[in-house]
Amino acid sequence: MPALELAGEDTASPPEKTLFGKYEVGRLLGYGAFAKVYHARDVHTEQSVAIKAISKQRILKGGLAANVKREISIMRRLRHPNIVRLLEVLANKKKIYFVLEFAKGGELFAKVAKSRFSEDLSRRYFQQLISAIGYCHSRGVYHRDLKPENLLLDENWNLKVTDFGLSALTEQIRPDGLLHTLCGTPAYVAPEILLKKGYDGAKVDIWSCGIILFVLNSGYLPFNDPNLMVMYKKICNGEFRVPRWTSPDLKRLLSRLLDTNPQTRITVDEIVNDPWFKIGYKDVKFHHDYLELKDEDDEEDDSGGSSSSGSSSGGDNLKMMNAFDIISFSSGYKLSGLFDEVEDGERFLSTATPEEIMETVVAVAEGEGLTVVTRKEWCVKVVGGHSCNFVMVVELKRLTEELVVVEVRMRESVVGPSNRIWKDKIRPGLNCLIYKTGPAG
Ligand code: ADE
């Protein structure tokens, strides 16, 4: 069984058969400049997963700790049928492991390499891609590194975009641990990046989608040359020709996607209203709220595929923290400042029982005129404030027999007067519960 090691890293350590006693590691699926991806099987559920191993040292060397923390927290919340789910994040002293939904069908481009797709099939995949991109963009998440190896297929031949939100990481690190703005082929890279002008993540993704649509329809790249400098020039000048079988409507859309001027380039909203794109398009309806309280393990999966996620309950309704969560609290791993803050909220430890904690939270919230909208055994959601724009979720996780982690999250939009509800009213009322504040407190 191979060890989960990184490209270019010392592989002398003995191979691991299972990772954290939970995942049996199998064949290598792929590797990049700084990470390897393996097939693995959950030993309890037999579910297939993909595990991506990343070196902590390189992240820290590259000064990317804050990026990783942010990106993981975003990734964990992305739920879309055409996006590979981040199921779990595990970590040990040396590495971070992303446990990802497994896309059984492999790379989309392995299929297009055999023969170009019909216009209808190209449209179907492009619609799925835009649905995923639009979903992420509407949540302020940009891929910035859309390329063939990030487009996978599931067992039903549906598109799955991978590495969403992790690109800030993947695009910048090389084996030397230094930051680089450009690595690999520039064939999918927007002109404004090549021109080092500074860029808008949304516009850059749209450009890459244009390249992808072109390849699906034609079977080859719009901008290509063995000489990189010549390729750069073609990209920056927007010099491409569509193949003769391309319909006028598709040709028009491609020219709007591959507009070298990011300001005039088509937007996602415009794409979904495009006559070529619109044919047979049904966008996905979402029922997952950003701060939804559903137990992750119960959750209906939009993709109809994978299931479990995050920390497992282990027979106790109170979720146990996984390695990722525990390491967040461990200065021994020198990761403090990497994973220990909760964005838009706070996390602290308490020796009170979960029942006491919940009672206190509800009493303080109700005492301040907030309304409890959902209450579960280990999770509560309260709303209030001016036009109910204050939304707070308090979730408990058991760390040890004696210690419970209390995680308080608020909507990102909680600013100004709403934020005062937390700071001045709720937070002081919870002081009695705090055993030891985390760095966020
Ligand atoms: N290669 C990289 N990520 C993968 C995934 N999630 N599923 C299958 N193959 C992959």
From TrEMBL:
Limits of the NAF domain: 316-340
Domain Protein kinase: 23-277
GO molecular function ontology, one term from the record: protein serine/threonine kinase activity
Pfam families: NAF, Pkinase
Family membership: Belongs to the protein kinase superfamily. CAMK Ser/Thr protein kinase family. SNF1 subfamily.
Cited SMART domains: S_TKc (SM00220)
Enzyme Commission number, as recorded: 2.7.11.1
Segments of this protein annotated with the region Disordered: 295-316
Record GO biological process: signal transduction
Reactions it catalyzes: L-threonyl-[protein] + ATP = O-phospho-L-threonyl-[protein] + ADP + H(+); L-seryl-[protein] + ATP = O-phospho-L-seryl-[protein] + ADP + H(+)
Annotated protein name in UniProt: non-specific serine/threonine protein kinase
SUPFAM superfamilies hit by this protein: Protein kinase-like (PK-like) (SSF56112)
Compositionally biased spans, kind Low complexity: 304-316
Positions contributing to ATP binding: K61
Cofactors required: Mn(2+)
CDD domains hit by this protein: CIPK_C
Keyword Manganese belongs to the record: yes
